[in-house]
Design goal:
The structure holds two protein chains of two kinds. Chain A is of the alpha+beta class. Helices cover about 35% and strands about 25% of the residues of chain A. In chain A, helix 9 packs across helix 10 and helix 10 packs parallel to helix 11. In chain A, about 45% of the residues are buried. Chain B is an alpha/beta fold. Chain B has two domains: about 110 residues, 3-Layer(aba) Sandwich (Rossmann fold), CATH 3.40.50; about 150 residues, Rossmann fold (3-Layer(aba) Sandwich), CATH 3.40.50. Chain B is about 35% helix and about 25% strand. Chain B is built from nine helices and 14 strands. Chain B has a seven-stranded mixed sheet with strand order 3-4-2-1-5-6-7. A seven-stranded mixed sheet of chain B has the order 9-8-11-10-12-13-14, sandwiched between helices. In chain B, helix 3 packs parallel to helix 4 and helix 5 crosses helix 9. The longest helix of chain B has 13 residues. Chain B is globular, with a radius of gyration of 18 Å. The mean pLDDT of chain B is about 95. Classes of the chains: A alpha+beta, B alpha/beta. At the A-B interface, helix 8 of A face helix 4 and helix 5 of B.
Chain lengths: ~350, ~280
């Protein structure tokens, strides 16, 4: 789960990392009053969870007298498809130098690394390709080693301290990424001009204070409550299956035969009748023209899936065309139930997917 | 021969008295796996399908030392259960899904210090056909043979195994490495083991979007002695969306199926576009 910039900065502040003076607004109420303590030169930053906000027009430098106009144009607007509901208004910093600093999880080494560069403000992915030697990669565990290595750099002591704090934040919040880019040197101080924190979704149970699922659409959040993995897509064929890999493959095969998926829905292992009904309910919110159901029953009992399908159709009186590919545990019972209700069943996954596209 | 597990492998089950743990203890035992004991704190003295249950891994190891432990404990308790197994010299198969990433990092580092193998987390486990199953996969789809399989996914693996078996392409060992970002044994480790395994002639690698494991695997396969076929799921997955598995996400443009497929093709490895093509490419 990504945190918004202002939330990340609130955490930085709590841990004594300097952030620019500023405030968060969600409407224009008493704006002039709120701005009193801020200087003349300001920056207005849309609080949305997308990259490249500046290029997309979501970050605007302004004079104090123009803030209201800029803020009212940004609030409620859509940037890269995301609605702007909050703005962070901050003092504009006098930038002397920009650093990059982050802590990342390295999947292949199964370790956390500290990345530091004296060339902040740029896209670090690009820099790592063009000038990998300009990025220092250190283990954050050995503080002494960090202090020594950084002591050779300009502002090394301060960087070492910030590195230490970021590592603590990463552990305290179960983050998979903590990044400051740029970390700005301004009048002798190091100030976090931006923040990027991603919390590990699997650790959210340890952090009930963080509100969950804000990157999800309303329906995606509802699906999550029922233990369904659901992602909205923009085609017209509903896709339901069991197992993430199997459903991903189903989408790919659908595309191969010229179909377009309306969604990705993984009912998980051992889905009950109720869970299957809910899966169909959620799939129908995208108004698909047809639905393909792809079940390879192991722990999942095919007859439960079949009963879920029939219950859903009966309760909702829905007669949308469906192709059901169902094999595995209790397959025979499942096919009997479905065929009695006139629903077409197939054994081959690829043939079934081809069929639904026809 | 097989890799990692065989007829002689002895296994304990952590979380044996739970619903899933007990169900799969029965199925693994029926498959012929030598299950020596179950472990559930405070449930010592009970039996699960004729297998004695102990409070701690240590007691279970004192009773009859095993090689592997399979974990069915809830994600939030997985780290302490895994540590207990690793402290007692056991390799691990972690079935549990949803383990915090920092917990997984600690588990993997401890395993490395103790020179033990971890399979998973978020894996269906491992099966050496007709010898031993330490996992939850439906046994009846497998057929003994010479194809080794390594996969990041569960059901998709069953799908592909089923197709292989129906086409008379039996398997030696089938290994799920898990769908999480931080996992134990990976494609490269498993490929090294398969290379030395005389009974395995060809290998299928089933990858998916997210991370750079497939890219690193492609690099490793440049100088590999056995025939490998690859399938990658998620060609049509949108960026920044987690596709079911915690590790299956394209972020900052990294981890796309395209990038992975291109890397494999650049070193001359065959990549199946459809799952059914795997059978054709193996024949």
């Amino acid at each position: 789960m990504k945190l918004n910039e202002y939330e990340g900065k609130a955490i930085f502040k709590k841990y004594d990392i300097s952030v620019p003076n500023g405030l968060v607004i969600s409407d224009l109420n008493k704006l002039e009053e709120k701005l009193e303590k801020l200087p003349i030169n300001l920056v207005v930053k849309s609080q949305i969870l997308v990259a490249g906000r500046k290029k997309a027009g979501g970050i605007i430098f302004v004079d104090k007298k123009n803030v209201k106009e800029v803020a009212s144009s940004l609030l409620g607007s859509k940037i890269k498809g995301m609605k702007v509901e909050k703005l962070l208004i901050e003092e504009k910093l006098d930038i002397e130098k920009e650093f990059y600093i982050s802590l990342i999880v390295d999947r292949s080494d199964k370790k956390i690394y500290l990345l530091i560069s004296q060339e902040g403000g740029v896209d670090i992915e690009d820099l790592s390709k063009s000038h990998p030697e300009k990025i220092l990669k250190l283990s954050p565990v050995n503080e002494r080693h960090i202090e020594e290595t950084l002591s050779k750099l300009h502002n090394g002591d301060k960087l070492a301290l910030i590195a230490k704090i970021l590592y603590k934040i990463m552990k305290d919040y179960d983050a998979e990424l903590v990044e400051i880019n740029p970390l700005v040197e301004s009048k002798g101080r190091l100030i976090a001009a931006d923040s990027k924190i991603i919390i590990d979704d699997n650790s959210l149970f340890r952090h009930p204070e963080l509100k969950m699922n804000r990157e999800l659409t309303k329906i995606e959040a509802e699906a999550a409550e029922y233990g369904l993995n659901y992602v909205e897509l923009d085609g017209d064929i509903g896709v339901i299956g069991n197992g993430a890999g199997l459903v991903m493959a189903t989408l790919d095969i659908l595309d191969y035969y010229g179909g377009k998926a309306a969604n990705f829905l993984d009912v998980g292992g051992g889905a009950s009748i109720e869970r299957m009904e809910k899966a169909l309910d959620i799939t129908m919110t995208k108004n698909p023209k047809k639905i393909i159901i792809n079940i390879f029953g192991g722990i999942t009992k095919c007859d439960e899936i079949a009963k879920g399908i029939i219950n859903f159709r009966k309760k909702k009186g829905i007669t949308i065309p469906m192709v059901v590919r169902i094999i595995g545990t209790n397959e025979r019972e499942a096919k009997k139930i479905l065929e009695e209700h006139g629903i077409f069943c197939m054994d081959s996954m690829e043939a079934a997917i081809k069929k639904v596209v026809e | 021969m097989t890799i990692l597990i065989d007829k002689k492998t002895k296994v304990i089950v952590q979380g044996a008295t739970g619903h899933q743990g007990s169900f799969h203890t029965k199925l693994m035992k029926e498959y012929g796996t030598n299950i020596t004991a179950g472990v559930t704190p405070k449930k010592g003295g009970q039996e699960v399908h004729g297998i004695p249950v102990f409070n701690t891994v240590k007691e279970a190891q004192d009773y009859n030392p095993a090689d592997y432990s399979i974990l069915f404990v809830p994600a939030r308790f997985a780290k302490s259960a895994a540590f207990e197994a690793l402290d007692n010299g056991l390799n691990l198969v972690i079935i549990s899904e949803g383990i915090p990433i920092h917990d997984s990092i600690e588990i993997m580092n401890k395993a490395k210090e103790n020179a033990l193998t971890v399979i998973g987390p978020n894996t269906p486990g491992i099966i050496s056909i007709n010898e031993c199953k330490v996992g939850i996969m439906p046994s009846h789809i497998f057929k003994k043979g010479k194809v080794g399989i390594i996969s990041r996914s569960g059901t998709l693996t069953y799908e592909i195994v089923n197709e292989l078996s129906r086409n008379n392409l039996g398997q030696s060992t089938v290994l799920g490495i898990g769908g999480d970002p931080v996992i134990g044994i990976d494609f490269i480790d498993a490929l090294k083991l398969f290379e030395k395994d005389h009974r395995t002639e060809k290998i299928v690698v089933i990858g998916e979007i997210g991370g750079d494991l497939e890219e690193r695997t492609a690099k490793f396969l440049k100088d590999y002695s056995k025939y490998v076929v690859v399938y990658i799921a998620g060609r049509t997955a949108p960026p920044d969306k987690r596709m079911g598995h915690a590790g299956a996400i394209i972020s900052a443009g990294m981890g796309t199926a395209r990038s992975k497929i291109d890397k494999f093709m650049s070193v001359g490895i065959k990549v199946a576009q459809l799952p059914s093509e795997i059978v054709r490419l193996l024949k």
